[in-house]
Amino acid sequence: MLIRLLIVDGHTLTRYGLREVIARQDDIEIVAESESAAGTPGLIAAVQPDVVTMDASLPDGDGMKLARGLRDRHPELGIVMLTSRDEDHLLFQALDAGVSAFVSKTAPVDEALAAIRHAAVAATSFTASGLAVALSRRRTLQDGLSLSPREAEVLRLLRDGLTIPVIAQVMHISTSTAKTYVARLYEKLGATNRAQALMTAVHHSLIRYEGPPAAHLVPSPAPAPAPAAQRAALSVLQAPRQAASLGRAAGPGRAAGPGRAAGPGRRAGLRRRAWLRRRARLPG
After folding, report:
1. Which residues neighbour 157 within 8 Å (Cβ) at sequence distance 6 or greater?
2. Which residues are CB-neighbours of 216 under 8 A, at least 6 positions away?
3. pTM of structure
4. Helix intervals (H) in the chain
5. Strand, coil or helix: 4
6. What pLDDT, in 10s, does the model give residues 172-201?
7. Are the beta carbons of 29 and 5 closer than 8 angstroms?
């Protein structure tokens, strides 16, 4: 069986190295190469490879997200994830994404070739050289964290972006109880805020990062009506502006607003009062 291989990697040297290795194999041939996530789906449709090797981090996208999409569209496609970061949480992300094999770029050549051959015949079966050790480490860490079911639910709701009052509504508990759960969770994860708690939880595979969530269907509280004192103060502040608007609107022949001259008789009375005030200040 001749294995048709597509290489997806943003690093020219990595693609070159794979070409040199594959050229010496009688049962594998490279049918195409891609350096981006965007061009990969179309290339797969065009050349129809048996196996795809891809970097976990591509110049224009997330290799894990690309792998998940390819698995959904091509159940029979072998997917080998290559990564320069040999970390447990990446291995488990690859497992969740449905890839066939997870290989570090520092692994021996024979391990990479074995992963390609495995993916060609067992696309939906996962293999990784450090899987057993990683599983053991994850169990140890999870036993040490030992989240209660309620704390695990709070963690998921924090991941979804809910505030503490909304978490209390969703879980049908008081806000103070929700605060207690969050505080315990932060203490167990060694975190002081939401971002640190979520990063630690993702790192230890307690939760999966699934991108921005849809808005939670929690009814928003109706805005409280303004107090009577606030309404009264607002009407006092608005009154001068309303009066000024009425005064500007008043034209010839209309009633004058407050502070406007009413006619010749009023002006004469004002002049007489001013004259009397000046005379009263003169010495007798």
Report:
1. 166, 167, 170, 171
2. 160, 161, 162, 166, 170
3. 0.55
4. 12-22, 40-47, 63-73, 88-97, 109-121, 131-145, 149-159, 164-171, 175-189, 194-203, 228-249, 264-281
5. strand
6. 999 999 999 999 899 888 888 999 889 888
7. yes
pLDDT in tens, 65-111: 999 999 999 999 999 999 987 678 888 889 999 999 999 999 999 99
**Tens-digit pLDDT profile for residues 85-98:** 767 888 888 999 99
Q: Does position 282 have pLDDT exceeding 60, yes or no?
A: no
d(CA 4, CA 15): 15
CATH architecture under which domain 147-203 falls: Orthogonal Bundle (1.10)
Q: Which two tokens stand for residue 78?
A: 């072998």
CA distance 31 to 35: 14
Pairing mode, if any, of strands 127-128 and 101-104? parallel
Q: List phi, psi (to 5°) of 214.
A: -70, 155
Round to whole Å and give the CA distance between 112 and 7: 13
List pLDDT tens digits, range 14-28: 999 999 999 999 999
Superfamily of structural domain 3-136? Response regulator (3.40.50.2300)
As a residue count, the chain comes to 284
Q: Note whether 9 and 3 are within 8 A (CB).
A: no
Domain definitions of the chain by residue range:
3-136, 147-203
Contacts of residue 7, defined as CB under 8 A and 6 or more positions apart, other chains included, come to 15, 18, 19, 30, 32, 33, 34, 52, 53
Q: By CB neighbour count within 10 A (0-12 exposed, 13-18 middle, 19+ buried), where does 115 fall?
A: buried
C-alpha span between 149 and 98 (Å, rounded):
27
Count other C-beta atoms under 10 Å from residue 90's C-beta.
Answer: 19
Pick from 23, 30, 27: nearest CA to 2: 27
Domain pair 3-136 / 147-203, same fold = no
